[in-house]
Design goal:
The complex is a heterodimer of chains A (519) and B (493). Helix content of chain A is 75%, strand content 3%. Chain A is mainly alpha-helical and 519 residues long. In chain A, strand 1 (56-64) and strand 2 form a beta hairpin. Chain A starts with a helix and ends with a helix. Chain B is 75% helix and 1% strand. Chain B contains 21 helices and 2 strands. Classes of the chains: A mainly alpha (519), B mainly alpha (493). Chain A binds chain B through residues 63-67, 104, 107, 129, 132-134, 136-137, 139-140, 144, 147-148, 154-155, 158-159, 162-163, 166-167, 170-171, 173-174, 177-178, 180-181, 184, and chain B through 344, 347, 388, 391, 402, 407-409, 413-414, 417-418, 420-421, 424-425, 429, 432-433, 436-437, 439-440, 443-444, 447, 451, 454-456, 485, 488-489, 492.
């Protein structure tokens, strides 16, 4: 029930918010609800057993038996942290949107909770069709968020976001149907549960570019590569980020992009191990291009938010590079970097939103010497910047170190190229920091009589900064939960299997036994 | 040999008969009253609703037993009653039931002619149920003509003076040609079938199915005849080169009537075509299968690309209906090459029709209660900021559009998934890929109204009729589109 609650309580909350007659308490209500969800996810973490790679808290029942589609939720070390991340960011996003969202407040929070439900659902579902439904459902609230509460070119951005993602996932749907048919011809029964699909042998001819497995893999890979987004398919991201309202950007960068990388980790790689290792050079190549290209483009931006958006492209490239290194170190780094990116880029978007609320401009040239005007804000911004450019003792360092090491072990060339990206990353971020915070103070800024960080903003930033250091200094606290799952994946990548944890099986057996006894 | 007519035959056709009898009541009242005094619109429409509802109840009462006892035939095998008939008749009746209330208070409906209008309306439904149950090409033709002739007349009975007349003439002339082609095809098929068996053969489907596979590979006359039948039906279901009437006629007709044509009428024609395809000709004829495949692909493209260029909502929805014919053809082709009786393929088709019908009730129903004057042609631009004026209606329309686009978690996604997996199961991989590409194109124009409603704001007021009954139907259809995605298994049982 735990996982269902995490997935569907947000839907209930969204309905409660919509039907709540008192407009005034909407945001307080939303805050309470998100707090409840966070507490619930802490309970989940507390009960999670880190010493196994099995699926835990499994819920499984037939949904459309004719096609073998199940309602199948489960969690393991890979999905645990993503669920935690999105439940952690949600209350912060709500605190952050207290000021920035002024119109249609009810609808905004409803959309936010629906988005939460679909994201959690896609991290938890282990049935491909169920996953697809959650994966696609997340488009609607996000598109609404950009389109209703966004900036000047919101319609264009929202449309582009929707069409791009939809286009990719259509190919995934074709692959899913093919997989189900393959499972039927192998076992005689329809099934869309990943546990069954991991087992089937999909025809693969080495040396030929297009065998069945490669085609199916590409179907999944296009969908996830657009979502991540990977280099040539990234153009929707800067538009969506710049036009989205601050809370939308945070969720988009913090959690939604992870749906793509998670998809690679959970579905694309283990389902099609041969094809993905055959094509790993393509993905590593595109990832490295993404890292360098994102950094170079970020360097020439004049808009802070756009700069952060392109830095996102660059950082997501690291994650892909780590995952396609196919060793435990790389995978660990990839997973860790997903969390880091969620925290540091999320925080950057918060910070950009805060300064935008005060000055109503995001042009770098409009700032200068902000450190003297807003000292505390500057401290926070610097800490997050260090996390983003992977300075040791911050979380970014751990993730990037793992990734670069993994990539180097797998193929030194990619590792070497990616290190170039680290330098470039430091360049554009520090450049921006220098122009915005240091140097001669822009007289307009002084005239504006800006206020430094308020209490609600402390509430948003302090937890994020705490995690920046906690994750940077004690990575073991976090990695111990995913260790088993990741080593299971990297050691058995060619015959990957997931088992359902014993206690679930036992309780099922117990139920059937008692039922039989009662008969 | 023709079998004698038995009592059970009449029991089986009771639902149809009740439709016909109810259709006589309003027009009879009008004839017998002095000075052709017209009854109240609400009363007449209420009578029609009662008639359709009675028919639905009778259908469930008397044909429900086909579930347990298999297939029934009536009137020496002229009509067939099996689960396929049962479900599709029920679907058509439900869709008619949903579309009737939109006639109330609509500006284009002539109140002075409402009795005649309802008479025709009910007879169109009567024709549809004959068409669905027909087990014989001639009966199919009769059902089709009864349905079409009523429609031709209903389209002209519109207070709007120009477009509706043009639409009616266009539909009538083209429809008659299509009917002639259909009839020619039927005569060729019968001719070759009877020649093969020296006049011994019966001409209903159950006997035709035994010889089709043989004739299709040997007899050219049969092939031509069969192709002509497909062309005749292709017109009715708006298959690619024969689709061009759809936007004009849908636009010209009164919106409640367009709703009826896009849902119930279309469903009935498709079900009849499915019966003809189930004769098994496609299994043997590769060229016919590949031709139909290409036509399906072109239908989807023409519908989707056509809709992209439109600004009138009614024309957008008309083109979207053409595109949906393409998706339905995908399902029909899968059904035609593997007619495991009432297997997954049939299920997929019926469910898709259900989903498509419900969403079309939503989209056209929305148009019909938003129209103010007979000449009204709602432009997409008029939807600006609609969400801020009537949020619930806007959300409802958004759900219907997302359902038509096939985006999860609506019912539209699952039904689309179902037909695509049934087509892939038969090995039509490329066909499905094309269909998937098309559904991405479709998203463009299905999103457009949503974008206008939600993302723009405007001062201009777009009025809604205060007719709450229609709104309730509209909102419940929209809700079904959402809930159907989750409660889908219930529909299967």
């Amino acid at each position: 029930m735990m996982l269902s609650a995490l997935t569907f309580l947000p839907v209930v909350f969204a309905l409660l918010i919509i039907f709540n007659p008192q407009e005034k308490i909407t945001s307080k209500l939303a805050l309470v609800f998100s707090g409840l969800l966070f507490v619930l996810s802490l309970v989940l973490l507390y009960n999670f057993n880190p010493n196994t790679s099995d699926l835990q808290f499994v819920e499984k029942s037939a949904w459309i038996p004719q096609l073998g589609i199940q309602y199948f939720l489960g969690i393991d070390g890979i999905s645990l942290w993503l669920v935690m991340l999105s439940n952690f960011l949600l209350p912060l996003v709500i605190i952050g949107s207290l000021k920035s969202i002024k119109v249609k407040v009810k609808s905004f929070y409803a959309a936010l909770f629906l988005l939460q439900a679909s994201m959690i659902g896609s991290f938890l579902s282990l049935d491909l069709i169920l996953f697809y439904i959650f994966f696609e459902s997340s488009l609607i609230p996000m598109a609404l968020m950009i389109g209703i509460w966004g900036g000047d070119k919101k319609v264009y951005a929202s449309f582009k976001f929707f069409i791009y993602t939809m286009f990719g996932s259509v190919f995934m749907l074709a692959s899913i149907i093919c997989l189900m048919l393959l499972n039927k011809s192998a076992t005689g029964e329809f099934s869309s549960s990943v546990l069954d699909l991991y087992r089937i042998d999909i025809a693969f001819v080495d040396g030929r570019f297009f065998s069945t497995q490669t085609l199916l893999f590409l179907g999944f890979a296009i969908a996830f590569a657009i979502k991540v987004p990977m280099f040539p398919l990234h153009t929707w991201l800067p538009d969506a980020h710049v036009q989205a309202p601050t809370p939308g950007s945070v969720i988009l960068a913090g959690v939604m992009l992870k749906m793509g990388t998670y998809g690679f980790l959970r579905f694309a790689i283990p389902l099609f191990p041969d094809a993905s290792s055959q094509l790993s050079w393509v993905f590593s190549f595109l990832a490295v291009i993404g890292i360098i290209y994102g950094a170079l483009v970020a360097m020439v931006q004049t808009d802070i938010k756009k700069l952060v958006a392109y830095s996102s492209v660059s950082h997501m490239g690291y994650i892909i590079l780590g995952m396609f290194a196919f060793n435990e170190i790389g995978l660990t780094g990839g997973l860790y970097q997903m969390l880091n990116h969620g925290i540091s880029t999320g925080a950057l978007f918060f910070l950009v939103g805060m300064i935008y609320d005060r000055t109503h401009t995001r042009e770098i040239s409009a700032y200068g010497g902000l450190a003297k005007v807003l000292p505390i804000y500057t401290i926070f911004f610097l800490i997050i910047t260090f996390s983003s450019i992977a300075v040791p003792l911050t979380n970014g360092f751990v993730g990037e170190f793992y990734i670069l090491l993994g990539a180097y072990i797998n193929e030194p060339f990619w590792g070497a190229l990616a290190i170039l990206g680290v330098v470039l990353g430091a360049t554009y971020m520090l450049w921006m920091v220098k122009k915005v915070f240091f140097g001669a103070t822009n007289p307009n800024l002084v005239a504006m009589n800006l206020k430094d960080i308020t209490i609600s903003e402390y509430c948003v930033l302090v937890p994020l900064v705490v995690f920046v250091f906690w994750m940077g200094i004690f990575p073991g606290h976090f990695l111990k939960y995913s260790e088993q799952s990741l080593s299971n994946l990297s050691n058995n990548i060619n015959n990957y299997e997931l088992k359902i944890a014993d206690d679930f099986v036992k309780s099922k057996e117990l139920i059937t036994k008692t039922l039989k006894a009662s008969h | 040999m023709p079998t004698p007519i038995k009592f059970i035959d009449f029991i089986l056709v009771l639902p149809m008969l009740s439709l016909f009898l109810f259709s006589l009541i309003p027009i009879g009242l009008k004839v017998f009253q002095q000075k052709n005094h017209e009854s109240k619109t609400d009363f007449v429409v209420g009578l029609a609703l009662m008639g359709v509802f009675t028919s639905l109840v009778l259908l469930i009462l008397f044909q429900g037993k086909v579930f347990y006892q298999g297939t029934f035939f009536a009137f020496s095998q002229a009509l067939i009653f099996d689960r396929f008939t049962f479900f599709s008749t029920a679907l058509c009746l439900v869709l008619s039931l949903l579309s009737l209330p939109f006639l109330l208070n609509h500006t284009t409906i002539r109140r002075s002619q409402i009795s005649e209008f309802i008479f025709l309306y009910m007879n169109a439904i009567f024709g549809m149920s004959i068409l669905i149950a027909s087990n014989d090409l001639i009966i199919t033709f009769i059902g089709l003509e009864l349905m079409s002739l009523s429609l031709y007349m209903m389209i002209t009975m519109n207070r709007e003076p120009h477009a509706s007349k043009e639409a009616a003439v266009k539909y009538f002339v083209l429809g008659s040609v299509a009917s002639a082609i259909l009839l020619f095809g039927i005569s060729l098929v019968y001719g070759s079938a009877v020649m093969l068996s020296n006049g011994q053969i019966q001409t209903h489907y159950s006997s035709l199915v035994e010889i089709t596979s043989q004739l299709i590979s040997t007899d050219r006359i049969f092939i031509v005849g069969y192709a002509l039948i497909l062309i005749g039906f292709g017109f009715k279901i708006s298959m690619f080169p024969l689709h061009s009437w759809v936007p004009d006629v849908y636009q010209g007709a009164a919106t409640p009537l367009t709703l009826f044509m896009a849902t119930a009428v279309k469903v009935a024609s498709i079900v009849a075509l499915a019966r003809i395809l189930m004769l098994g000709a496609l299994e043997e004829s590769f060229s016919l299968t590949s031709t139909l495949q290409w036509l399906a692909i072109l239908t989807m493209f023409v519908g989707n690309l056509g809709a992209l260029a439109q600004t009138s909502l009614k024309r957008i929805f008309a083109y979207s209906s053409v595109a949906h014919s393409g998706y339905i053809l995908v399902s029909l082709i899968a059904l035609a090459v593997d007619q495991t009786f009432f297997g997954t393929n049939t299920e997929a088709l019926l469910l898709y029709l259900l989903g498509y019908g419900l969403f079309s009730v939503g989209t056209f129903g929305f148009l019909s209660f938003i129209e103010r004057s007979p000449e009204d042609d709602i432009n997409i631009d008029q939807l600006r900021g609609f969400f801020y004026k009537s949020p619930w209606i806007a959300v409802g329309l958004a759900f219907c559009l997302l359902g038509l686009a096939g985006i999860p978690p609506t019912l539209g996604f699952i039904t689309k998934f179902y037909i695509f997996s049934s087509a892939m199961n038969e090995g039509f991989y490329w066909l499905v890929i094309w269909a998937l590409i098309n559904s991405v194109i479709g998203v463009f124009y299905y999103l457009k109204p949503i974008v206008y409603m939600f993302f723009y704001s405007s001062e201009e007021e777009l009025p809604c009729t205060d007719y709450s009954f229609q709104k309730i139907i509209f909102l419940s259809v929209a809700f079904l589109s959402l809930a159907g995605g989750v409660l889908f298994p219930l529909f299967l049982n």
